[in-house]
Amino acid sequence: MKTKELELYLNDLLEVPRYKDYCPNGLQVQGRPEVTHIVTGVTASVALLDAAIEAGADAILVHHGYFWRGEDARVIGQKHGRLRRLLVSDTNLLAYHLPLDGHPELGNNAQLGRELGLNPTGRFGDDQLGWTGTLPQSMTLRMLADHIAGVLGREPLAIGDPDQPVRTVGWCTGGAQGYFDGAIAAGVDVYLSGEVSEQTTHLARESGVGYIAAGHHATERYGIRALGTHLAQQFGLRHTFIDIPNPV
To answer: What range does the domain containing 94 cover?
Structure first.
């Protein structure tokens, strides 16, 4: 498959023009013109680049790429090391941030909800990135945290009364603790995201809505993997998902 054809397909599939993002979405570093093997991962770290290049990838597809708004534009230090690996190996790098969060089927939020067995009921927040849904049955906050730990393989931070009953859930993966107010307004019993801030604790205590921080990386593994699987099925490409452990 032509690299340009792959980018155009992804741009259309993920509706890139809909989103005002903090980074460029699409092809970020140009490599070889043909793609037969795609490696997917959450973040374009050196560890992922080295593993993908070693695996013979023609393209690396990630959620967290490069060239974030406000960052130093100079190609020095870590940025030089990362870009040098891609350019020397002639490997393409494609990245999709908010468009991957928001996709109704392959997106991070859709896939996390599916992994946790949540039944989606609505959307909220900027670009409708936040989701609401229901659990199959009511459980306590402690039980939900245990369930999340079992699915994600990571112990989450749960704020609230461990014995409070929860049935309705709001969620948004990654660093979306700022959506907590919107989730409360949506009437959920508990809100799940990847990260937590100092003020989150007070908001949870004062609102009576539980908060679960399950890890930025841990909550965003599923969208990029699903996207790679979709491309493999759609175009007969070889796909390898590489998970680089990250405790955050």
So the answer is: 1-100+218-239
Domain assignment of residue 245, yes or no: no
Does 216 count as an annotated binding residue? yes
Sheet holding 157-159, edge to edge: 119-124, 130-140, 165-172, 190-193, 210-213, 157-159
Looking at the structure, tell me whether residues 226 and 192 fall in a common domain.
no
Query: How far is 59 from 91, CA to CA, in rounded Å?
Result: 6
What tens digit of pLDDT does each residue of 88-137 get? 999 999 999 999 999 999 999 999 999 999 999 999 998 999 999 999 99
Instruction: Find out whether 147 is annotated in a ligand binding site.
Output: no
Nearest-5° Cα angle at 14, 8 to 18: 105
| Residue 87 structure tokens | 């350019």
195 is in an annotated binding site: no
Rg of the chain over all Cα atoms, to the nearest angstrom:
19
